[in-house]
């Protein structure tokens, strides 16, 4: 007959529990792959929450995080039509841990409007990757007696100068400049009403306090679908899938008026080349995912052109910056 089963004493049980705790502690202490290997990356959105750039930036950050293998934290730093947040990134340590999720005007327009600015964003920021392309949506309050562009232009011309208004997220903001170029092409005059962000600028159109807005698609399209805004036209050279019944400005009778923009990731100048390469590849992979493309389409945006490298993006930024330097001077656009 075998020996009776051995009974564990309290001391033996305590020893076994201690061993288990030590094993768990040692497992936690081991380096974890991916997100635990480095401190979080700060992705600065230079606008208040709720605007088009914020919506797209947060969608991008969720997909960029697994590609870069680090936690990505979105930070909203609004002010001066995106200039405050852009400058904060330009002045950050060039180690690749602080990035800017910019709309085109932050980099190619605002620097030409800031008088006495001690920092040149054209050289203080380095392009990482373009992640979207987009056009604007001309929206009006539903009470505006116009359903087509022709009717809207006739209505504007029938009213006293300054009676009709358009809002924007601030002087130099993308929707401000879209309004300026539209007014120039259509030969009409409207009063510009700047706000601190696209979301409040759009909501005052919904409230009826402002006549119209040239909005980036993400915040405007849900309001159009809900009947709180009426879409008159889009500003690119083709219709967008999210609003297939809305014509382009040219299709609606305003030839030569094409106004587009993009979103891109930027780093402080001076980030080492190997780090920039790693950031670029991760950003492009994230932007190329089906999930991000689906989100862009849902929000009325489009993917960046295929195969655009960091170098090609940088060259495009230089060309756009030169165009806007001349345009701002010709149209005498100034900070109000």
CATH topology of the largest domain: D-Maltodextrin-Binding Protein, domain 2
The tally of structural domains comes to 2
Straight-line N-to-C gap: 99 Å
Q: From the coordinates shown, what is the CATH architecture of the largest domain?
A: 3-Layer(aba) Sandwich
The H/E string reads HEHEHEHHHEEHEHEHEHEEHHH
Low-pLDDT ranges: 1-36
Question: Helical content, roughly?
Answer: 40-55%
Average of the residue pLDDT scores: 87
CATH superfamily annotation of the largest domain: Bordetella uptake gene, domain 1
Strand content: 15-25%
CATH class of the largest domain: Alpha Beta
Strand numbers in spatial order across the main sheet: 2-1-3-10-4
Key traits:
D-Maltodextrin-Binding Protein, domain 2; alpha/beta; disordered N terminus; 10 strands; 336 residues; single chain; five-stranded mixed β-sheet
């Amino acid at each position: 007959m075998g020996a009776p089963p051995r009974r564990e004493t309290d001391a033996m049980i305590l020893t076994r529990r201690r061993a288990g705790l030590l094993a768990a502690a040692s497992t936690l202490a081991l380096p974890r792959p991916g997100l635990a290997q480095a401190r979080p990356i700060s992705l600065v959105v230079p606008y208040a929450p709720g605007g088009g750039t914020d919506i797209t930036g947060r969608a991008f950050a969720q997909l960029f995080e697994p590609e870069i293998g680090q936690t990505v934290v979105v930070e909203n730093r609004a002010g001066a039509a995106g200039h405050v947040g852009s400058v904060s990134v330009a002045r950050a340590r060039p180690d690749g841990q602080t990035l800017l999720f910019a709309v085109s005007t932050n980099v190619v327009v605002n620097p030409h409007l800031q008088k006495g600015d001690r920092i040149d964003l054209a050289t203080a920021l380095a392009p990482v990757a373009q992640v979207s392309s987009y056009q604007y949506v001309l929206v009006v309050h539903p009470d505006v007696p116009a359903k087509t562009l022709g009717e809207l232009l006739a209505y504007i011309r029938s009213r006293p100068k300054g009676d009709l208004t358009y809002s924007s997220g601030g002087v130099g903001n993308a929707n401000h400049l879209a309004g300026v170029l539209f007014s120039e092409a259509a030969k009409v005059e409207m009063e510009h009403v700047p706000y601190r962000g696209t979301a409040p600028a759009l909501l005052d159109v919904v409230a009826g306090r402002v006549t119209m807005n040239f909005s980036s698609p993400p915040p405007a399209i849900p309001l159009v679908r809900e009947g709180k805004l009426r879409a008159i036209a889009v500003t690119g050279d083709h219709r967008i899938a999210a609003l297939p019944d809305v014509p382009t400005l040219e299709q609606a009778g305003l030839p030569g008026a094409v106004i587009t923009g993009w979103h891109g990731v930027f780093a402080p100048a001076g980030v080492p080349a190997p780090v920039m390469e790693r950031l670029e590849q991760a950003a492009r992979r994230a932007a190329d995912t089906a999930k991000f493309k689906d989100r862009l389409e849902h929000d009325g945006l489009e993917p960046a052109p295929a195969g655009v490298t960091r170098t090609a993006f940088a060259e495009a930024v230089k060309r756009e910056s030169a165009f806007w330097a001349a345009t701002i001077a010709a149209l005498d656009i100034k900070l109000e």
